[in-house]
Design brief:
Helices cover about 80% and strands about 0% of the residues. It has about 140 residues and is an all-alpha fold. It has one domain (about 1-135).
Length: about 140
């Protein structure tokens, strides 16, 4: 049972790294083709912060999955709030420096946020299912 949960965690972390790596590369390419500097929308930072935050959230949920099984949903929501806090601390001041958040700036944060959220959702769902199956 324990190795199955660990395998779920590691597989989803690997999937997260691959998906966000590929998406980040494509995103970088598209911005360059549109003559938008990826650094101007903090693209690298957005992908890095979302990747690290998602891995941290998954590891915390993995570590607390048995002790706080009935509160996993709240931990998951707290992880999303944590990522929004990171956005407001690390990105929003730069994005708002000219009093406007441009579409490339918004998309530059939103795409890695959504992709990491999707992977987190599937990982937590599988961890919950595996944990509830082991209890029956």
């Amino acid at each position: 049972m324990r190795s199955t949960s660990r395998k779920i965690l590691l597989n989803h972390i690997l999937l997260l790294l691959i998906l966000l790596g590929v998406a980040g590369g494509l995103h970088f390419y598209v911005l360059q083709r549109l003559h938008i500097e990826p650094e101007s929308v903090l693209l690298g930072r957005a992908y890095l912060v979302n990747t690290i935050a998602a891995i941290l959230i998954l590891v915390v949920i993995y570590l607390l999955r048995k002790r706080m099984f009935s509160q996993i949903g709240f931990l998951f929501l707290a992880g999303s709030m944590f990522k929004f806090l990171l956005f407001f601390l690390l990105f929003n001041p730069t994005y708002r420096s000219d009093d406007i958040v441009t579409r490339p700036e918004f998309i530059g944060f939103f795409i890695p946020y959504c992709l990491s959220l999707i992977i987190e959702t599937f990982a937590v769902s599988k961890l919950l299912k595996e944990n509830s199956d082991s209890d029956s």
